[in-house]
Write a structure and sequence with these properties.
The complex is a heterodimer of chains A (about 290) and B (about 375). Chain A is mainly α. Chain A has 11 helices and 2 strands, in the order ααααββααααααα. Chain A has a single domain, classed as ABC transporter involved in vitamin B12 uptake, BtuC. Classes of the chains: A mainly alpha (about 290), B alpha/beta (about 375).
Chain lengths: ~290, ~375
């Protein structure tokens, strides 16, 4: 029983990480139908910038704040200089642009930072909490809490604020939104900025557990995308549930089957979801009336 | 128009002649190096690159080798074996090197061996697995201790502490797999029983499921972790997180201060086999390696601002063995240099005392390894090993 509980805790730890990354995909998708594959790089930038600011002597909270601001700026720049000029292109072309941006950001990170692994001190100490014979790191609970807070804030934003409604309007029908006075360019700007900020926060919270280096973005983005697809792309709650589910399935298959095929799990899930239920668990089925 | 064309063509030809003449005018001995300066093996390749650069400069300042300056050509394979092979081919065909010191990882070395065997260029590898020199390739040598020796040293220490049943958790990278295979092969005659085995991908971020399975396996008295890079650091952190109190052994793949930094307090009490270099100041004065390792430590720390690691030490040994072979051969002729490398006897390096032979292209024995324990964030020597 303690063994199962430990696998569950491991699954929650990894799942919370995927959930935070997956959340970053939802806002941009909601505002513009783009899957932003540079999301992983936002996570990397959050972690690496904080590490390097801290190494330069800046106190940790300020370093984290600077990292979030810098990453938000990068997200805005990504939209203004890479996506916006190509706004008439098909979604596939835009996705390819984000992949190109992710490669570019990775290359710049190698030069600006360095190529080694780095860690950050955990918020509540490195000693694990013992519960029912199993151990969980306090930092894992912090990551889970962070994901919950972001989901609640996103929900409040979309349901209760005018700006949130404007985002939904832009996603539903861009032309109609512009006709009623929504500045769609500002909306997409905003969604990129907020997604970048979410990515940065994710990076700062998960680095004490996973370590960071210039190329952590790739695998994280893929797993986060799998989580977002499983939960229903565009749904924040779906992103968190999808992330936790994938984390659990990975941990349980590593525990009860074989640890060699752990990575295959996430990618198998993407295949199954795309074939069987592309809208995911919480996504809305898209119906087009002709 | 005609005249302008003529002038342009003449200028182009003239430039080409000048450039090619520039190439031939440099009678330098070319040493190639393909290292994993970035990527998952960067804490191997980065000190290796710095060491080679520091010492090639020093040798050139003293007049070079056989009256010729050394030219070092370094390429970064980023830990990718495919890149390594491409760079190896470039070194042979375009840069036309005389000898090669490099291959930070087992994977990249194995990918490059056919290139240098075909081109008949002496290749001193800086990687760990035993397949690099067993079976013996005519042109391939290596300086680091093999994974087989690491297993033997760990098992000897286990026997000494009366621990005979162990679990292994290995990385699925080339070195992790190779060392795991060697340990399995050597275990019976060392009197060690491997109760259970787990594995993890080199980029995984959480190994608690695998460690939980190990912890719940009855009879396990100690755990061994073959691997290198970020994997062992995370395994070590997870080990402490789960509260596992069994003795924990790492391989020499983590013999760098960066491992202690990343693993943090979890590294306390971890044992690993490593070269004398890591405990240079704590060696007894009569140890023949002491002057070499102390000197290297001082020079490296001064010129690079970083603490030493055994990987930089292996690069130092590789370069010195090559240079001394060239001096004995009195030329940079590839065949003669290869023969002289094979005749290296009594070379005292950072890794140990090297005695090569036609059947042994590494030249180290078990006495070149010491068992270290991490205490107070630093390496300490386990007495009597």
């Amino acid at each position: 029983m303690a063994e199962l509980l430990q696998f569950v805790f491991s699954g929650l730890t990894v799942g919370a990480i995927y959930a935070l990354v997956a959340l970053g995909f939802t806002l941009i998708y909601n505002a513009s139908d783009i899957i932003n594959f540079a999301q992983g790089e936002f996570v990397m930038l959050g972690g690496m910038t904080t590490v390097f600011m801290a190494l330069a002597g800046v106190p940790l909270p300020l370093a984290a704040l600077i990292a979030i601001i810098v990453t938000t700026g990068v997200g805005l720049a990504l939209h203004r200089f890479a996506i916006e000029p190509a706004r008439g292109a098909s979604p596939v072309a835009l996705i390819m642009i984000t992949i190109g941006a992710s490669v570019f950001l990775r290359g710049v990170a190698q030069v600006v930072f360095d190529k080694r692994f780095h860690s950050l001190p955990p918020l509540f100490g490195a000693d694990s909490i013992q519960f029912g014979g199993a151990a969980i790191l306090p930092q894992s609970l912090v990551v889970l809490a962070g994901a919950t807070v972001i989901v609640i804030l996103l929900w409040l934003f979309v349901e209760r604020t005018l700006l949130g409604k404007a985002v939904i309007a832009t996603a539903a029908n861009r032309l109609a939104a512009r006709l009623i006075g929504v500045d769609t360019r500002r909306i997409v700007d905003f969604s990129f900025a907020v997604s970048a900020a979410i990515g940065a926060i994710a990076g700062i919270l998960i680095t004490p557990i996973t370590l960071t280096s210039y190329d952590v973005g790739t695998l994280l983005a893929l797993k986060g995308f799998a989580a977002a697809m499983l939960g229903g792309i565009g749904s924040p709650l779906g992103a968190v549930v999808g992330g936790l589910l994938i984390g659990m399935i990975e941990a349980l298959s590593a525990g009860y089957l074989s640890s060699s095929y752990k990575d295959a799990v996430a990618f198998l899930i993407i295949l199954v979801v795309l074939v069987a239920m592309p809208q995911g668990l919480f996504g809305r089925v898209k119906v087009e009336r002709v | 128009m005609r005249t302008l064309q003529r002038v342009t063509v003449t200028a182009a030809i003239g430039l080409a002649v000048l450039l090619s003449a520039g190439h031939q005018a440099s009678a330098q001995t070319k040493i190639g190096a393909v290292l994993s300066v970035t990527g998952p093996a960067s804490f191997l390749g980065d000190p290796e690159k710095k060491t080679l650069e520091i010492y090639v400069d020093e040798i050139n300042a003293k007049g070079g080798v056989n009256g010729q300056k050394l030219q070092l050509i370094v390429y970064d394979d980023a830990g990718n074996a495919n890149n390594a092979r491409t760079f190896a081919t470039r070194l042979v065909e375009e840069d036309k090197i005389d000898a090669m010191v490099g291959g930070s990882t087992t994977g990249s070395t194995l990918a490059m061996i056919p290139v240098f065997e075909d081109a008949k260029i002496p290749f001193i590898s800086l990687a760990g697995a035993i397949q690099i020199i067993e079976p013996v390739h005519k042109w391939v040598f290596k300086t680091p201790h093999t994974d087989k020796m690491a297993c033997e040293k760990i098992f000897a220490d286990l026997k000494h502490r009366n621990l005979t049943t162990i679990a292994m958790i290995s990385g699925t990278d080339a070195f992790g797999k190779s060392m795991r295979d060697q340990c399995v092969a050597v275990a019976p005659q060392a009197g060690i029983k491997i109760a259970t085995e787990e594995s993890y991908g080199p980029r995984d971020s959480d190994m608690t499921p695998q460690l939980t399975k190990i912890h719940n396996t009855a009879g396990v008295q100690a755990v061994v972790n073959p691997g290198f890079g970020q994997g062992p650091a995370i395994v070590t952190r997870n080990y402490r997180q789960l509260g596992i109190k069994l003795p924990f052994y790492q391989s020499h793949g983590v013999a760098s201060k960066q491992f202690i930094e990343l693993a943090g307090p979890a590294a306390e009490g971890v044992r690993l086999p490593a070269a004398a270099l890591l405990i240079a100041d704590k060696l007894p004065n009569k140890d023949p390696q002491k002057p070499v390792v102390v000197n290297y430590t001082r020079t490296y720390q001064q010129k690079s601002g970083q603490a030493v690691s055994t990987f930089g030490g292996h690069a130092y040994d590789g370069l010195m063995i090559l240079v001394q072979a060239m001096q004995r051969a009195k030329s940079a002729d590839k065949s003669k240099v290869r023969d002289e490398i094979e005749k290296t006897k009594g070379y005292i390096g950072t890794g140990g005392i090297v005695n090569m032979s036609p059947t042994d292209h590494m030249g180290l024995d078990l006495s070149a390894f010491h068992m270290l324990e991490i205490k107070g964030g630093d390496w300490t020597l386990v007495p009597g090993t």
